[in-house]
Amino acid sequence: MEIPYKIYLSEEEIPRAWYNVRADMKVKPAPLLVPNTLKPATADDLSHVFCDELVKQELDNDHAFIEIPDDIRNFYKMYRPSPLVRAYCLERALGTPAHIYYKFEGNNTSGSHKLNSAIAQAYYAKKQGLKGVTTETGAGQWGTALSMATAYFGLDCKVYMVKVSYEQKPFRREVMRTYGASVTPSPSDTTNVGRAILAEHPGTTGSLGCAISEAVETAVSNEGYRYVLGSVLNQVLLHQSVIGLETKTALDKYGIKADIIIGCAGGGSNLGGLISPFVGQKLRGEADYRIIAVEPASCPSFTRGKYAYDFCDTGRVCPLAKMYTLGSNFIPSANHAGGLRYHGMSSTLSELYHQGLMEARSVEQTSVFDAAVQFARVEGILPAPESSHAIRVAIDEALKCKQTGEAKNIVFGLTGTGYFDLVAYQKYNDHQMSDYIPTDEELQKSLAQLPKVEK
Amino acid sequence: MEIPYKIYLSEEEIPRAWYNVRADMKVKPAPLLVPNTLKPATADDLSHVFCDELVKQELDNDHAFIEIPDDIRNFYKMYRPSPLVRAYCLERALGTPAHIYYKFEGNNTSGSHKLNSAIAQAYYAKKQGLKGVTTETGAGQWGTALSMATAYFGLDCKVYMVKVSYEQKPFRREVMRTYGASVTPSPSDTTNVGRAILAEHPGTTGSLGCAISEAVETAVSNEGYRYVLGSVLNQVLLHQSVIGLETKTALDKYGIKADIIIGCAGGGSNLGGLISPFVGQKLRGEADYRIIAVEPASCPSFTRGKYAYDFCDTGRVCPLAKMYTLGSNFIPSANHAGGLRYHGMSSTLSELYHQGLMEARSVEQTSVFDAAVQFARVEGILPAPESSHAIRVAIDEALKCKQTGEAKNIVFGLTGTGYFDLVAYQKYNDHQMSDYIPTDEELQKSLAQLPKVEK
What we know:
By secondary structure, the first copy, chain A, is α/β, with parallel strands linked by helices. Chain A has 18 helices and 15 strands. The longest helix of chain A has 20 residues.
């Protein structure tokens, strides 16, 4: 059977249920802990911050499949199923016998896979009768996705955008505003935590940790609002399982058995979604795959972090999670472009990695942009810097196949497009991009501040 | 048969031949004229500027179908067939009984339909053994598409970008550079015409007409280069017929008969491509459709221009074309956002309009952005300002159906995305967008300078 350039499923083949990989894990991810008591967080603990149905999903380690409501499936139909693309042109350019496939999640205005979870979270907020939601955004990918989702359901959306991004990335901000979201540069004078930070550091350009704290405070202090988050959480990985489920359906349709599955990893939303059904098969002993998580060498939580309980935000208002972490005070060096800058990693992925079900690899950003440009020129799509981490390793593995003569099937996640990352591309084009690998001393310093949690 | 949200054809259903509507026209579009002799341009006249095969296509009024070479079809497979989308969410939001469909050409990195012709033009340049091509670009949509196409075939690409855009739209410029194109702000000191203009107007921020002249001069004065153009020409409309052919195949597949077909019109590349197979049916007496060209009220060549021979560029180095024109010195007012700013209109479309085969309507830009935002919030996609002209009229027609209770099938062309047009959206969001309709006196002034050409 000849494989087309793009394998498109029909709308009927969009999954009817998300897959919850935790149900198939014998050792479950460690529970979230309440910051002041260090006790496992209950639904009650979480429900003043998150929507009720999302809290249920967050804590559900038992149900393997959770039905996707029709309203969400109908929204998915506007941009899904996303294509699984055979990278014929890249294969030819590399001269590799490997077959390369990528699941492309960038064909929507948010430009990434983030929309898959944003629409689900907005739906449950609407169903609960809320007025709106709050969130933080750094570069703006998640904020854009959420503003599209809340516009669709007629919800209010308050986004705290890290001040430096707010000023340097006005276009992302305008997309959010066009979709009706209010975007506030953080830190701001709209919250206690923001005012306190501004008083202490008047010239600060903000941080993701501070924006999270402001968004959470706004959610809990406004009637009818809850806080939503675009990565790291179990619920997000659950929603993102549509990526992996569609990928598996498309591969199965053409009788293709993946040998290597590659995804970029920041907080884990894309990687977790892409690999979950394949990891499920591994957990159930039905099939084996090499799975590779790719992270920036400048923010190497899997490859150089510690598996321990840590704060999820620098403001320390959110529950603690057990994860591979660099310490909640860790901030990637200023030359780091794009996302994948979170200090920790999804608890579920961390536990899977700990159990040896996947590998991890870190790559430096100049080599990532080399791969991005090589890919763009033959495959047409200008990739997001985040996605390009996966491209780098896919190319490396395809070149190994060229040496060994193996026709392996390599599947990677192309999470999004780089249309709002052109400042980084400009640096690359002008040969002004640099790499930075944190020293052992730096990492020891930020890891020394991990909270003490009894085993 | 239930109609899905997105009608996707298979790759096998990508057209194998472009459709040349001129073959079915009894009265053909008027020929191009050589500027100094005012005689019809022959292949010899054109071949020092354009690629040989493209000159053949430009002058071919006889062959209804021209085969699409495999290399081009394979490139098309990376982003085509483009979806024909049923706008269920927009219909619901409007409460209209009309069925609205749009052919979405924005799912590629160039962000528009321009890539359909760019890849064809690059292919013929490569086949002719050329080193590279030159072109001009305003906002950068065409330049981006061309740089993607030349990167794919390993050709050099020299883009003259209007200086004000070069400085104000650095991101489009960076996409082109990422694909390996050299981008020169125009006017520049790399050409005689550029140096002359700079000497006369040292502070000028450039114009499309000047950039065309620089690109043509560079093509004819460099061994192994030719000039390529993204709109207006017959060859471009020919390549763009893939849009209409796919649209027709998708409609036929579900037994849908379009009642109204709507496209935005600047130079005519998208409109001509979208409507050509449908106009062909009209010309052959096989079917009837209402066809509406939508143009900006600030640049109203169809609705307020004159059908006459005119210069295609302000530098007056290119052949003359008979077209609906506002005069080659006409420049839309400074508040005009986005493209659709060409003073004339494709000769083929002009002749079809003259024969009464289509209608034209002009719309003001604030109402265009109203429609764009309404569309974005329910259909997800942030549209290009150009495409939003068609959205405006599609919504207007759907609202008429609401009044009359008619369930008409409305089809429009969504040519691209607005990801690089956020300065315009910001103006709209800040309520600082204004409208401008040129006065009769202004138009009379620019039309008074039309060249004298004997009938």
